[in-house]
Amino acid sequence: MTRKHSKENIEQAVSILGEATRDELAILWTSRNGHSPPKGCSRTLLELAEAYAIQAHLAGGLKPRLRRKLGVR
User: If you count DSSP H runs as helices and E runs as strands, how many of each does the chain have, helices first?
Assistant: First the structure.
C-alpha cells in the first residue's frame, strides 16, 4: 500500500467531518456512491462512511488481492 499523505493530513481531513451537517454528509455519500443514502441512515453512519472513504483514498485503499476477495470494485 502506497502512502499518499501523512497521518496528520488524514486526521485533519477526517476531523472536518464533525462540523458537517447531515445534509452535507448525505451529499458526499451521494457523490461517492451514485445514489442517496438509505432512508433512516444516521448522521453517525454517514460520518463514519465518509471518514473511511477519505482514509482509503489518502492512504491508498485496500490491496488488489483483498479487494478481489471481498468482491469490491
Answer: 4, 0
